Amino acid sequence: MRWSELWHSGTGLWRRDPAVHQYHFTGYHTSMRVLFLQRHAQAESGAAYTTDHERELTDGGRRDAEAMGRHMAGIGQFPAHIVSSSAVRTRETCEWMSRGANLNDIEVAATERLYQATPDAVMDEIRSLNGGYGNVLMVGHQPAWGAVIQRLTGAQVDMRTGAVACIQLSVRTWSKVKSRSGRLVWFMPPMAVRGNGL
């Protein structure tokens, strides 16, 4: 079963209760779009690299990305499709996320348009997403990611490296996404899933 089928046939959306660190089922929203925005996991400093684009993940960043992928798969929310910045650290984040979710055939599209992108450019990229996917993970960078989350939902989050925000969009097609068209369902920093055995 592909994850897109699992999402629509029996998973639904979950909301995190920070008081007890649990997730609660909130119902099905199959007519809407769900966007996961993730900042790349922790990367090496730029001193050892010729360009910022080449920076790789630290060992801790790899572990965090793998744990996040394992956790998202465990709660039935690993996406059907991934779009990543072309930077090495974002592509590595996708790789370790997929490894944690035990999904080797997940579709990942890397694009230069998400590297050093402005919030406007990210919004354009969201609107251009393939309509066949109801839920998509986009992996990129600050400060654009935090600004886009605020633009879509009105929420301000501490978008640390490796963190993921789940946004439910009240649109039937990606092309209709606009400011305040979504709500923040949950936000998860990597520290919340470290050592998670799911």
From TrEMBL:
**Membrane spanning stretches:** none
Q: Which SUPFAM superfamilies match?
A: Phosphoglycerate mutase-like
Q: Where is the signal peptide?
A: none
* Protein name according to UniProt: Histidine phosphatase family protein
What's the source species for this entry? Longibacter salinarum
